[in-house]
Design a protein that fits this description.
The chain is of the alpha/beta class. It is about 35% helix and about 15% strand. The chain folds into 2 domains: about 150 residues, TPP-binding domain (Rossmann fold, 3-Layer(aba) Sandwich); about 80 residues, SIR2/SIRT2 'Small Domain'. A hairpin with a 5-residue loop joins strand 4 and strand 5. Bound molecules: 2'-O-acetyl adenosine-5-diphosphoribose. 2'-O-acetyl adenosine-5-diphosphoribose binds next to loops.
């Protein structure tokens, strides 16, 4: 990606009043967290989502499901935010200083945007760091990393298996997260889609919503996706490299 190509979207970022950034697994790839759909390294290449990421799978084999999610919880806790996460947090601060805003809508459950210092992060698919009783929905705090749960599945005070506070296939997204997303999408003048394959709804539909409201759009992804042909600027490359460059051109060197 040459410097020329980065100038127009960087200028749009610097001039925007209300920015929405939609992120997916790709933004955390360079922190060492595997994506889902990359052909070789993606989680769904080695694991079947129907056996691990559905309410039916949890009911059938809660031990397997909670072991897998706890393994991922500890993996995420051992990773650090990368320059892409840090650049988004910086852009948020720069825009706030100019009276603007930046909302992050993430499909990731790893908590890395917040750990990078970002605020206003909407976790569309929940968080792998928080767990709850599957019967009462009462939060149940997991042991601090790197400690795993002492048993699988963990059992709550109510005597029911404890589950991660993530959204599984077939489950509804948290209502508050959806409300905050639609509110931000309705008023944004710029949307960035970063590191998502744009195939899982409703997040995959956010770009069209933003476009319908007149927002300009930027995609950051090393691969083409279904939204590449409709975005204003498609920036091909890794987010840990492109986002810091975009933010540096928009707001100056940190
Ligand atoms: P995917 O694994 O479907 O897509 C990851 C995207 O990141 C792909 O388009 C890659 O090309 C891109 N990518 C890979 N490395 C990158 C890098 N270094 N920088 C930027 N982009 C990179 O992940 P999601 O789109 O997040 O849901 O998947 C959406 C949902 O499907 C997930 O939240 C999860 C999954 O099944 C549930 O588990 C419910």
């Amino acid at each position: 990606m040459d410097d020329q190509a980065i100038h127009p979207p960087a200028q749009a970022l610097a001039q925007a009043r209300s920015v929405v950034v939609l992120t997916g697994a790709g933004v955390s790839a360079e922190s060492g967290i595997p994506t889902f759909r990359d052909t070789m390294a993606g989680l769904w290449a080695s694991f079947d989502p129907q056996q691990l990421a559905t309410p039916e799978a949890f009911a059938r084999d809660p031990e397997l499901v909670t072991r897998w999610y706890d393994h991922r919880r500890l993996g995420c806790a051992a990773c650090e935010p990368n320059p892409g996460h840090l650049a988004l947090a910086r852009a948020q601060g720069e825009l706030a200083r100019r009276g603007g805003s930046l909302t992050i809508l993430t499909q990731n459950v790893d908590g890395l945007h917040t750990r990078a210092g970002a605020e206003n992060v909407v976790e569309l698919h929940g968080s792998i760091m928080t767990w709850r009783c599957s019967k009462t929905a009462e939060p149940v705090t997991p042991p601090p990393p790197p400690e795993p749960w002492p048993e699988f599945p963990p059992i709550s005070h109510a005597g029911a298996p404890v589950r991660p506070d993530v959204v599984w296939f077939g489950e509804a997204l948290p209502e508050e997260a959806l409300e905050r997303s639609f509110e931000a999408l309705q008023s944004c003048d710029l949307l960035l889609s970063v590191g998502t394959s744009s195939v899982v709804y409703p997040a995959a539909g956010f770009i069209e919503l933003a476009c319908a409201n007149g927002a300009r759009t930027i995609e950051v992804n090393p691969q083409e996706t279904p939204i590449s042909s409709i975005v204003t600027w498609a920036l091909r490359g890794r987010s840990a490299e492109i986002l810091p460059r975009l933010v540096a051109v928009a707001f100056g060197a940190a």
